[in-house]
Write a structure and sequence with these properties.
The protein is an all-alpha fold and 466 residues long. The chain has three domains: 174 residues, MFS general substrate transporter like domains (Growth Hormone, Chain: A), CATH 1.20.1250.20; 56 residues; 216 residues, Up-down Bundle (Growth Hormone, Chain: A). The protein is built from 18 helices and no strands. The two termini are 25 Å apart.
Length: 466
């Protein structure tokens, strides 16, 4: 079930390595940022949409549609003769990737709830680890020896095998909880996609222009925030909303979504700032800087299953995840000590500590969400969790860059990098702790109630029309 996630994550790490060569060959370097943004926006805004559509049509069909879109975008990118065409292909890939990411996590969660796949979280961890560790190296090898177009063409055989496996392994009706006669929330889909998309474009444009006074930066962010307000009004009137407001306002689901959105901000700041510091200030090669980020990734992979196991076995969220948040704060303190005279081991240890602290939140909060909502709301809740994590991650990148820019002139690149990572990671952990601390009771075991968490939460009504 994680083959789609492997396809999307491996492509991102491979293409990230190949993109400088692509821009050099196709020209138009101002398209560089847009090649990222074109993928990021649909891959983010369509996460809850894909999850909700799968409630109506079944997980298998939406996953197959996502894989088909992803492969179509890959073929367009491989055939591109200009950056404009490649950017269009990346947008199509992003639309497909939203389904692959949202439904891979969702299906594994559902199989775990039903007792059919106890190793699901371990499989996801393996995919993440393989993609993080192997993807950049594989991207470099492909680009250097086979040509950058193969960075996209390699998706085709992998994707076709994944589609065949999906047809065999997953029933077409799996996950279908909503009748097709239920009105589709077109207004909610449109306002959510437009508002989050505009918000992300504004934040990404700021990284290019460096000013919030431009209509395409600050103006876009303001329009996105207003659009989200309109989205909430639309959802209140919808028969089957794409994001039911009860999962945002209810407890413990709303608290868990808050924690899930902010728990991993340090990861985004590290991946943005630390490799750049190694390259520009320490004179390390691109490959060498990628290897030096491994302590963060290995820490994540070693710890990612701890949160899932703790929540799954005991239904306890506050204890293990507040402890992991405290470990993140320790990593933030270590980063705050970084300056030009620091020993070489300090940032490596700080990254490892951050990874160990954030790993349990990645998996534990997903398991907790699966227990906190009725089965009919699981698709919407999981899509909302992933959406919140992505949007706050993009905000964390912008905040980290702003903190770095405000400190680098007076204190140097090392201290500015440590300062920015420390504050972004620490603030994210603090906000996440507020959410997690609001979960005051153990979560019900779906296996003990026939898989129906709703029985333990009468305050969360089933979705209308299910």
């Amino acid at each position: 079930m994680v083959s789609g996630l492997l396809l999307a994550m491996l492509d991102q790490t491979i293409v990230g390595t190949a993109l400088p060569r692509i821009v050099g060959e196709l020209g138009d370097p101002h398209w560089y940022v847009w090649a990222f943004t074109a993928y990021l926006v649909p891959a983010t805004v369509l996460l809850p949409v894909a999850a909700r559509l799968s409630d109506r049509h079944g997980r298998q069909r939406v996953l197959l549609a996502g894989m088909a879109l992803f492969l179509a975008g890959s073929l367009l990118c491989a055939a591109a003769t200009s950056m404009a065409v490649l950017t269009a292909g990346r947008a199509i890939q992003g639309a497909g990737a939203a389904a692959l990411e949202a439904l891979s996590f969702l299906v594994v969660n559902e199989l775990s709830r039903s007792g059919r796949s106890g190793g699901g979280q371990a499989a996801i961890s393996g995919v993440m680890g393989f993609s993080f560790l192997v993807g950049p190296l594989l991207g470099g090898l492909i680009t250097d020896h086979a040509g950058w177009r193969w960075a996209f063409l390699v998706n085709v055989p992998v994707g076709l095998l994944a589609m065949a496996a999906l047809v065999v392994a997953l029933p077409a009706s799996f996950g279908r909880t909503e009748a097709r006669e239920t009105p589709l929330d077109l207004g909610g889909i449109a306002t959510l996609s437009a508002s989050v998309g505009i918000l992300l474009v504004g934040i990404n444009r700021h990284q290019e222009l460096g000013s919030w006074a431009e209509p395409s930066t600050g103006g876009a962010v303001a329009a996105g925030v207003l659009g989200l307000g309109l989205f909430l009004r639309v959802e209140r009137a919808a028969t089957a909303p794409v994001i039911p407001l009860r999962i945002l306002s209810g407890r413990p689901s709303g608290m868990l979504l808050l924690g899930g959105a902010f728990a991993t901000t340090g990861m985004y700041a590290c991946v943005l700032l630390v490799p750049r510091w190694y390259q520009l200030d320490q004179g390390v090669s691109a490959t060498g800087s990628g290897v030096r980020i491994y302590p963060l990734l290995i820490g994540l992979l070693l710890a990612v299953n701890l949160g899932a196991v703790a929540v799954a076995r005991r239904g306890e969220v506050r204890g293990p995840l507040l402890v992991s948040g405290a470990v993140v704060l320790l990593g933030a303190v270590l980063f705050g000590l970084l300056d030009a005279g620091s020993p070489g081991w300090l940032p490596l240890v700080a990254m490892a500590v951050l990874g160990i602290g954030m790993g349990p939140a990645l998996s534990g909060l997903q398991v907790a969400i699966g227990r906190a909502v009725p089965p009919a709301d699981l698709g919407a809740a999981m899509g909302t969790l992933l959406l919140g994590r992505q949007v706050i991650g993009v905000v964390a990148l912008a905040v980290g860059q702003a903190l770095y820019d405000g400190r680098v002139d007076g204190h140097g690149p090392a201290a500015a990098t440590g300062w920015a990572v420390a504050w972004v990671a620490g603030a994210g952990a603090a906000v996440a702790a507020l959410g997690i601390a609001g979960v005051r009771h153990r979560l019900p075991d779906p296996g003990a109630t026939g898989g129906d968490a709703a029985a333990a939460q009468p305050s969360l009504p089933a979705r209308t029309g299910s």
